[in-house]
Amino acid sequence: MQITKQYVKELVLEELTKADVKKLIDDAIEKKEKELKREFPKKLEAELEKALKSTDVKSDIGEIAKKVIKKLYKDLSFHHPYIIDRIKV
């Protein structure tokens, strides 16, 4: 059931109570939410697959990971050297 402007006008003209109108709108919203919950993961996965196939994205992810690892190492070596000493090789 599509809620169009004309349909809303007809509802008002029929003098439905506010509770009835609210229930109709809530039902329509709930239906759309369920539909989105089903389709969203599929579409998101498809878009991520497309993006991750790109070499630009892979190189960007690699650069970000390198920066995080460097900062983590720097923090650990200056502030917590005992953690590095406990690593068994």
Structure description:
The protein is 84% helix and 0% strand. The protein is mainly α and 89 residues long. It starts with a helix and ends with a helix. The relative contact order is 0.05. It is elongated and about 80 Å long. The model has no long low-confidence stretch (mean pLDDT 82).
Mean of pLDDT: 82
Number of strand segments:
0
The rounded Rg comes to: 27 Å
**First-residue to last-residue Cα separation:** 65 Å
* Count of helical regions: 4
Order of helices and strands: HHHH
Shape summary: elongated
Helical percentage: over 70%
Proportion of beta-strand residues:
under 5%
Characterize the main sheet.
none
Contiguous low-pLDDT stretches (5 residues minimum) are: none
SSE-based structural type: mainly alpha
Put the structure in a nutshell.
The chain is an all-alpha fold and 89 residues long. The protein contains 4 helices and no strands.
Task: Identify the notable features of this structure and list them briefly.
89 residues; mainly alpha; 4 helices; 0% strand
Summarize the SSE layout with pairings.
Elements (H helix, E strand, L loop, with lengths): L4 H9 L4 H36 L1 H25 L1 H5 L4
